[in-house]
Write a structure and sequence with these properties.
291 residues, 12 helices, 2 strands, mainly alpha, 2 domains, two-stranded antiparallel ribbon
Length: 291
């Protein structure tokens, strides 16, 4: 009975008397922070034991520079939009729209002006009048050429084109071109470009002896043809600019994607601390900027 009572006293002392009093040298050598109480000391020991599971998350995924370039090759600005550079994307789209609009507008204006001056030529320029004046004034153009050797007109009054071209070629001096057949683009160009065709216009003076005398019709027609050419030139320049815009946007898209991939990378690390009450996750953020 006395023995059992004595053992109970020892057990109570073991749990409630501070361990530093029973084993002062060993406990102090191990950890000066220990209180001597098993429950409290276990928490203190485990608190200093850390487990750090890392969860690395990158805020941005890398994008394909080839995909960005291909997108801008098809539609300028698309690759920049893909790379997140919205301002440059908008600029390339606006330039593309402006170039396409300019090309369409001025090409249509050139077509319209061409139809106008060709219709005017069909109404006011005559190959018969031009051929007749040339035959009548051969002696003034080139005295060495005998007009009787050329059968420029057929029996029904129509123009024999091969004979007319042969006469033009033999006259030489000033007659530098042979008239193409009507309807060809060169036909409408030549009759308003070279003085040798000036007397085919219906307001020309058939008594003139010099083919260099130009009528107001000739000059007006030449001006209209020049306007049409200017419209086409502007339209063609805009088309070239469209190709240039596609090329520049493709290069810029590749560069923009590379810049995007090298920009801001964010890594999130979750540090886990193991305590007596469980694991506590403490988030930490690492920012890096590459340039």
């Amino acid at each position: 009975m006395k023995l059992n009572f004595f053992m109970s006293i020892l057990l109570l002392a073991f749990f409630f008397i501070p361990l530093t009093q029973l084993f002062p040298q060993k406990i102090e050598a191990r950890n000066k922070l220990l209180s001597g109480n098993l429950i409290l000391d276990s928490k203190l020991v485990l608190t200093n034991y850390e487990v750090q599971p890392n969860l690395n998350l990158q805020s941005k995924e890398k994008k394909s520079r080839w995909l960005g370039g291909a997108m801008s090759l098809i539609l300028p600005g698309a690759g920049e939009f893909y790379a997140g550079d919205y301002l440059k994307a908008a600029i390339f789209v606006v330039v593309e729209a402006a170039a396409i609009t300019t090309a369409l507008v001025y090409t249509n204006k050139g077509d319209s002006k061409t139809q106008d001056f060709q219709h005017y030529a069909d109404q006011h320029w005559s190959v018969k009048r031009y051929a007749q004046w040339t035959l009548d004034h051969t002696q003034y153009i080139n005295p060495d050429v005998n007009p009787q050797n050329y059968h420029v007109f057929n029996g029904d009054g129509s123009v024999n084109w091969s004979e007319l071209n042969r006469l033009e070629s033999d006259l030489g001096d000033g007659y530098s071109h042979m008239l193409p057949t009507p309807g060809q683009q060169q036909y409408y160009e030549l009759i308003g470009k070279y003085p040798q065709f000036s007397h085919g216009w219906d307001t020309s003076n058939q008594n003139d002896t010099d083919f260099h005398i130009l009528t107001d019709q000739f000059l007006w027609y030449a001006h209209q043809r020049g306007l049409a050419n200017d419209y086409y030139t502007t339209g063609n320049t805009a088309i070239i600019f469209i190709y240039v815009n596609h090329f520049l946007s493709t290069l810029d898209a590749v560069w923009s994607v590379d810049k995007y991939n090298d920009s801001i990378a964010m890594n999130i690390r979750m540090n886990g601390i193991n305590t007596a009450n469980g694991i506590q996750l403490i988030p930490t953020i690492n920012l890096s900027y590459n340039f």
